[in-house]
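Recall that a protein's primary structure is simply its ordered list of amino acids. Everything else, from secondary elements to tertiary packing, is in principle encoded there. The following example makes that idea concrete.
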Amino acid sequence: MNTVTPAEAAAAILRGNVRAAARLMRLLDDRQPGATETLRLLYPHTGRAQVIGITGNPGSGKSTLTSRLIAFYRAEGKKVGVLAIDPSSPFSGGAILGDRIRMMEHAGDPGVFIRSLATRGALGGLSRSTTDLVHVMDAMGCDVVLIETVGVGQDEIDIVRTAHTTVVVLVPGLGDDIQAIKAGILEIADIFVVNKADIDGADRTIGDLRGLQMLMTEMPQWLPPIVRAVAARNEGIAELATKIQEHTAHLAENGGHTERERARVTFVLTQLARDATSRSVEAWLRGDEAGRTLVDAVVARTCDPYAAAQTAMSHTIVRQVAAL
């Protein structure tokens, strides 16, 4: 059996090899050894794709809207990557694949790559490996990467730290004025889409959003526009794409793109360091005699968990520094 080296895998992905990209995505999502080395080789070739987040309440039509955007960008000749974040199966831990099923019309298009991801218990509406997979799609030549979040309401925050433009989808009749305040979507959204705008209550929802915007203590340089859409009939999609492009231009002109990239990298580095430290601490507590003794001390109440955590952190940092 031939073993593909990280360099060979990276070279294949840079050539646009879908099979190599799909394999690396699976390995990254499963945290398999060696996958990170391939990603390191790909990273210098990233930073070209436009990353668009699609978020909103369950049932707001995010998947249909995402499917319509795919068709729009493909008509422009752009290569599109899609990360559909699905809830985890309570039995297997994998993605339930509901979003991918709703995008089956693009399954045969070689210019579209759709990957479902399970949240696997991660909060914030995204999977733990979302950023890694965005890098892979970027490196393989995707011009646009669409990230459709799971739609978890108030926890839907990580998309802001991942996407260049965040689209928040609302529908009439779900108490959107209250949801807007609860979820803090005035801070999350770069663009609002009132989907299913052909049903009663659309004008009220738009009015509520505009009213909330007027209550802001300080008007931002970019006031999120409100797009009326009926995604099921492909209405409002062209206008949405125009607003996305206008937001991209705004970021470029005002230095916002660099600011967001710095915020995104800070978030990614923090998450990577937190994850690595957490796994290292757990391994020490379970596998080292001193670690097991410390656990026993906390169980016996001869040591409190706060002091024990500091001790575990100290041992972990010393080991990580020694390994550098």
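The radius of gyration is 22 Å. The chain has three domains: 1-45, 46-254, 265-323.
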